[in-house]
Design brief:
The chain has 243 residues and is α/β, with parallel strands linked by helices. It has helices spanning 43-49, 75-79, 97-107, 113-126, 142-154, 172-187, 199-205, 223-228, 233-242, and strands at residues 3-14, 17-28, 32-36, 58-63, 66-67, 82-85, 160-164, 191-195, 208-213, 216-221.
Length: 243
């Protein structure tokens, strides 16, 4: 199995507050890892460290064999292979949907305008929004905006996708449309790390589920192990509260 992400003893502090207390994790190619757990447990910070949106305080992170925690690494080059989707959609309000998707590949000279436009239309078709190519973000629902954000991340042809609670800002009836796009990505073999409150998605789609609390991985296993037979009291308490 090809290792895509390897994390050794990752630590992160904000001033005196230790948010991550030594995380170890390996994610293999094509694996979908869902990270669940209580708020404030370090999940989003962990995810943001994986592409160094947050600077780790200690430990090492390797992506595709490159140590991205090495100060000398060409971070932008490694980041091109990592797509990230956040809670907020972060679309450019003054650009059409299509132009939002075309922006990064053209700016980074990875594609010509024509290539980027073709790719954008393919991706919009993939997320079920080809009829919205000329619309502006404010004309879309939250679920549609999040699907555009996923298409935008995919425009860079990443081989890893990170999702930070991508449905938590959405109205309940829009959650399903975003999760179905993510499910399709998973079925297509995309390597994914997903921080989520959607337990049904974690149960159905994940290869592995991590319960993160108090800055550590309290328990990890298959969805069946975690949801049906949790071993650790912290996991049992969390699941009792949310299921």
């Amino acid at each position: 199995m090809t290792e895509k992400i390897v994390v050794h003893d990752l630590k992160k502090s904000f001033h005196h507050l230790e948010v991550l207390k030594g995380i170890n994790l390996t994610v293999n190619e094509g694996e979908v890892v869902c990270v669940i757990g209580p708020s404030g447990g370090g999940k989003s910070t962990f995810l943001r460290c994986l592409n160094r949106l947050e600077e780790p305080t200690g430990g090492q992170i390797f992506v595709d064999g490159y140590e991205i925690t090495d100060p000398k690494i060409n971070l932008n080059k490694v980041r091109q292979n990592i797509g990230m989707v956040f809670q907020s959609f972060n679309l450019f309000a003054h650009l059409s949907v299509k132009k939002n998707i075309m922006l990064a590949p053209v700016d980074l000279k990875l594609m010509s305008k024509d290539e980027a436009e073709k790719k954008a239309m393919e991706l919009l078709d993939r997320v079920g929004l080809s009829d919205k190519a000329g619309a502006f973000p404010h004309q879309l629902s939250g679920g549609q905006q999040q699907r555009v954000a996923i298409a935008r991340a995919l425009a860079m042809n990443p081989d890893i996708m990170l999702f930070d609670e991508p449905t938590s800002a959405l109205d309940p009836e829009m959650v399903g449309e975003v999760l179905s796009v993510m499910k399709e990505l998973a079925e297509g073999g995309m390597t994914m790390v997903v921080v989520t409150h959607e337990m049904g998605f974690a149960r159905d789609v994940a290869d592995r589920v991590l319960l993160m609390a108090d800055g550590v991985i309290a328990e990890e296993g298959t969805p069946e192990q975690i949801f049906e037979h949790p071993q650790v009291k912290r996991t049992q308490d969390f699941l009792a509260a949310v299921l």
